[in-house]
Amino acid sequence: YSGRLRVGAFATANVALVPGALRAFRRRFPEVGLAPVEGPSGGLLRRMREGELDVAVVSDYPSGLPYDDEVEIIPLVEDELLVALPGDHRLAGRESVDLRELREETWIEAPPPGRTTMLEEACARAGFTPRATVRIAEWTGKFGFVAAGLGITLVPAIAAPAVPPELVLRSLGDLAPHRTVYAALPGTPLPAARTLVRLLSEAAGQ
Length: 206
What we know:
CATH superfamily of the largest domain: Periplasmic binding protein-like II
Shape: elongated
Distance between the termini: 24 Å
């Protein structure tokens, strides 16, 4: 392969999944230039339809994936959302946490306006409404607030390598929110793009 490969991904896919696949790709095809782009899934799919991306890693959260016969969608991994707790939290020693035991906690997130979040959906299934949230959007800020004992937050499993060691991640068991992560390709993909999708599948453990 030669030329340039334009690769889009949403933020938490860029923690480990996409870099791992790109590293493997570069080792095999060092002559191909890689042009990574970060953005929300809907925007990445729009850019692909407009011919600006060769591969995109997208998720079905928050608004699902629209059907589009111009874009091929390949499932990569089912991504569980874990709860991040400070190391001295009363439940930090558990292997998993019942979400209902967190009904009095302050949650740190930045919900998009007008949309129900995965946290709200999961809490509704558990029979309560989450307490008022601290609106922090960037992951470094969320982790800082959790470490300071100012709240807790949900972290996608694919972003776990970015979590500081002073925090602990715990599964929420049967009440855990999930999303699916996909690779997207345009209708006539480059051979190099298909190779990268295979490497993404390997990086995702498929």
